[in-house]
Design a protein that fits this description.
- 4 copies of one chain form a homotetramer.
- With 364 residues, chain A is of the alpha+beta class.
- Helices cover 27% and strands 21% of the residues of chain A.
- A 5-stranded antiparallel beta sheet of chain A has the order 1-2-3-7-4, with helices on one face. A 5-stranded antiparallel beta sheet of chain A has the order 9-8-10-16-11.
- In chain A, β1 and β2 form a beta hairpin.
- In chain A, α1 packs across α3, α3 packs across α8 and α6 packs antiparallel against α8.
- Chains in contact: A-B, A-C, A-D, B-C, B-D, C-D.
- Chains C and D meet through β1, α2, α6, β11 and α7 of C and β1, α2, α6, β11 and α7 of D.
- β11 of chain A pairs antiparallel with β11 of chain B.
- Chains A, B, C, D: One of its GO terms (molecular function) is chorismate synthase activity.
Chain lengths: 364, 364, 364, 364
């Protein structure tokens, strides 16, 4: 397996759904950044299960411990270990699934790849693995904050319902995390109806990064959008990624797609804040497609390890729609990717010729 | 910059549009694989400009030299250097663009990031950079061939025209590389009309990998779809990536999306051949959104390095739609990602418990 | 900072001397390897402080917890988190050293590099950091055991006293870990005398790996000796590395140094089991120079952060000679390097032409 | 194979002894650094064969071509390809060695590892591979120069003759590259006598880096001495590495080894300019043990691929002592390691609290 993301700022996660703990080591963090467990906890609390009716009812306090890399309240430059003990682990719940390959899950592929499978609540392939990502992402967010950049994700689609507004303040005030006051209750109802029907819903999460300076990203292989895609597509259940106009760009003409530059700055942002793999200084906007959760109550058929057909139904505490809980994870991966790109840019900056940027005035 | 892709099989590319040469070093290739310049040339010829009316008319023979890593016709395990000399370089053509930031291009971001910009035909951010990718991808393709796997990409959308058929044999017989006999001429005409109008068109390219064994991919950070996304999103002009149902999955319910497993194998492939970041053994299917080329003949306005507004028009030899030429590059990145995943799987396989796979019989 | 070692098998350590915990994540371990906390504990117990009069009297039980990557007693292929809580932390002991730059220590360089310094017992630069290495190394040792290879380190020099015998069984029976029954008591006495005098002694540790198959190592940059040197030189207090005849080779002639090959195998092993960066199948033998511990009771002079001259004396629980405790750490780094090289070789092996090895018969 | 060294500044080499070309790609170089082929050529000329009677008589002009990454005389931030065509390749000379395993060479291990061996002049394991290192190192040297740091290597021992002086200016004025006017002719004579006798001599090369700022190096795994050891031990024929007092430190007491810090700076430099894996600001001094060349004219016995005993004698153009030619390669690897560490330090520096360094005044 490969549990590390990043080049200079590297997160390595560990932990299985019903194992004793989950967490991460974040290595390469700059020194001198004020850091406490409380700051990390804030992001973890946003990810925690059981926050509302639209998420799983598993109860995990997810209290993080900061085991290293901090001294007298600031980062030291050393690797930062972040550990969360599991409390509500119920491995026995999964005994009946032991020999089954649940459709849509990684049961068959893990079994096939490793010859051994931790069947307790999906083991390593569980969404619980993202605890370490979110904890590390909280530190990455502080690095970005230190230069004034910020990242927010929010749900923009649930099933067929599409958000039209981007009222970002409102996004954190409703359980679906949608920035649209009108669509929020519709989406919530759709999710509850799906759960009622024993089914689940997909959706789309948008991520927006503001005040990211121009110049981040490392062509040609670590273009900013490529690294964002890598990080975001590594989140379970994500089936697609796009930046700026994304797939809609495929239907445009060049004359429509090109963002005109004016003495007052960029006149539009079809590019989503990235040109040639490098940030333009405009907001970075990308979206990910989240599939409907595979764990549904509706009875399904599948095969077991011996190839026999089996009926089964999942009766657990599952999310009927993943979007609200993917939001903090998507933010975390975005923060990690951007903070890493920032460090990489800082590495060469002393050699970059200082030029007067004609767009700076426009932005100031 | 960061010009390397891969972990065990690593390609590092070099070269600018109008510099003396472009190419790559491929490191980590297994020994004993028959390799000649001719095999690499075959893929390069498919990428070469000037093949038809729907692509740029720049004339580059793009003859590859194999400078190392091969002895008596087989790979030795050493790094393989692949170099292509540029012939039709015309740096002077670009002198008038020297101080301009062309909209949609990386002119501003390179200038901002590096403080210096090779303005000759986009320099490093040119599509010409992909020569090294395609050359290295040809070797990766041989690694995959050695276990019977194969990769093919093709255009499935140009502007608003969507291919419905997947006649893969036909894809290489038409200039648009679309696997649909009815749509091919429509797309070709649309491209020529766009060029005629001084404009350009976007599109979608689909990549399909067949006979990829189950078990490839390294969760949780190097999930197969994440690495494919990384590689494919690092190609210039690509604005989106999706695997299997992709963004359409966001509109599905779990009961529709889950691919049922039967004693006869998977009953569907909404997942696109990957579950939990690991290949299932089903065909891997993904798509990328390609934006319309930014170089258009229609006069545009922009600013120069001093912030002054400038009118300009590009009168060059540009692609009116990138899809046909992205096809071999997308194949190359896919081959590189899959071959790398294959090597990584081989590394642990001696320790994997050999299990009888109930789906094998179905597939055999 | 950079706390990761390895390519396919990657250890990332964390923890400071007087912080709440130390440990590591080992990522990339093959699945199916029987692993328990007890096996890891065995190696940790060999590293533990307070084992004899010749080491520090700090009392740490160093009980390891295995937090992930193991299911039903075997590794799953997932990242393995190994955590050891600190018990005998006494940060207050170090308050008086807060503003001093102790000579021979990393106080000045950490302060200079990071602008902040965890002064409690050297913080991250403490030997306590090696707990994570030893824990991860214990797992790497199991990977090697699975193919019959084994690694042992032992003290071969303390101050001016040089071991002549290689009675490896005896090495673990004496506190200095020297494989020479005659020299062991002399070394022990020398160490105690140095402590008595408030001083400390340097020494040399030799590492020997047996039954390592021919073919491990990745030229030209990851030659086996280069990676071993990297890993072993990253241990605190190590000032030199050599393989085979090492520095003595600089005084030899080619006719003496070349190991003749015969139908019965290699006639000698001046090379130390590595030729051209690849293992020969002979025992791998290397040595590291260990400096005398910098923490001595003799009063010293130094400067403080304000540049004022200061007298000070260290009155702590320090090792008078590091060799006995470096032994398990050197084994750990060697196991990690060799296991990584083994995995990398396995990755390409399916493509390696199977040849009849004329030396195999000799070895069999 | 693995032909890449470095993290942010990464060199990847290619090429075999008697193949068409050798060279490297250097990726991650900062932009804005004046660079011409002439500057690179200067270092290559120092490495070139045939410069004096004490080196091989093979005649290679080794003219470097700069294929990318430079525009209008300065680096652009893009990957830099450096290629040297081989002229005096005589693969036929090696036909008689085709099936032999030459003692001391990598013939057996390459054959065993890869199942195929480029037997022409050692193929990839030839010293000719270092052309790419030296070319890339020349660029790394420029990065260091931009902050005033400089690196010089020189021979300090040949066989039993040890240099006592460090007259660095003289080192480049004699063919052995020894900084000792008295010992130079003795060493030269010893080398010629060894050649006359059909034999070869080992030696020691010392590397010294001046004006390296304090703060470079990334504990705990990428400590500066560890990365230097990695880079220098990856040079063929190097069997040992030490920094500062190195192996002599093993015979010292702590009270002798600790470098006292005074208001006027460090009073000594037993540490060799590195403490805790981070540069102190003092000169970095390390040494490598170079084995006698394995290619000797004296008839030897060995076995062939079928295990038959064979007599053979090497009648080629070989170096009787490698030290003079290892000198520029050791400089190159040191420059690459230091420049990489410099970039990594620059990456975090904006977050490092600016402190008044009490030792600065002493140095100023």
């Amino acid at each position: 397996m490969s549990s590390t993301f990043g080049r200079l700022l590297r997160v390595t996660t560990f932990g299985e759904s019903h194992g004793p703990a989950v967490g991460a080591i974040l290595d390469g963090c700059p020194p001198g950044i004020p850091l406490t467990a409380e700051v990390v906890q804030r992001d973890l609390d946003r990810r925690r299960p059981g926050q509302s009716a639209v998420t799983t009812q598993r109860k995990e306090p997810d209290k993080v411990e900061l085991l290293s890399g901090v001294f007298e309240g600031v980062t030291t430059g050393a690797s930062i270990a972040l550990v969360v003990r599991s409390v509500d682990a119920r491995p026995a719940d999964y005994a009946n699934l032991k020999d089954l390959f649940r459709p849509g899950h990684a049961d068959y592929t893990y079994w096939k790849k490793y010859g051994v499978r931790d069947y307790r609540g999906s083991g390593r392939s569980s969404g619980r693995e993202t605890v370490g990502r979110v904890a590390a992402g909280a530190v990455a967010r502080l690095i970005l904050s230190s230069i004034g950049a910020r990242v927010q994700a929010y749900t923009v689609q649930v099933g067929d319902i599409v958000a039209e507004k981007r009222d970002l303040g409102f996004a954190e005030e409703n359980p679906v995390r949608v920035p649209d006051r009108e669509k929020a209750p519709l989406m919530e109802r759709a999710i509850l109806a799906a759960r009622e029907a024993g089914d689940s819903l997909g959706g789309v999460v948008e991520i927006r990064a503001d005040c990211v300076p121009a110049g981040l990203g490392d062509p040609v292989m670590d273009k900013l959008e490529a690294v964002l895609a890598w990080g975001l597509m590594s989140i379970g259940a994500v089936k697609g990624f796009e930046v700026g106009d994304g797939f809609a760009a495929s239907r445009r003409r060049g004359s429509e797609m090109n963002d005109r530059m004016t003495p007052g700055g960029f006149a539009s942002n079809h590019a989503g804040g990235i040109l040639g793999g490098i940030s333009t200084g405009e907001p970075i906007v990308c979206r990910i497609a989240v599939k409907p959760p595979s764990s549904i109550a509706i009875p399904q058929k599948t095969v077991d390890v011996e190839g026999k057909e089996r009926d089964f139904a999942i009766s657990g505490r599952h999310d009927p729609c993943l979007c609200p809980r993917v939001v903090p994870v998507a933010e975390a991966m975005t923060c990690l990717a951007l903070a890493d790109a920032l460090l990489r840019q800082r590495a060469i900056e002393p050699w970059v010729k200082k030029l007067e940027d004609p767009l700076h005035k426009a932005r100031a």
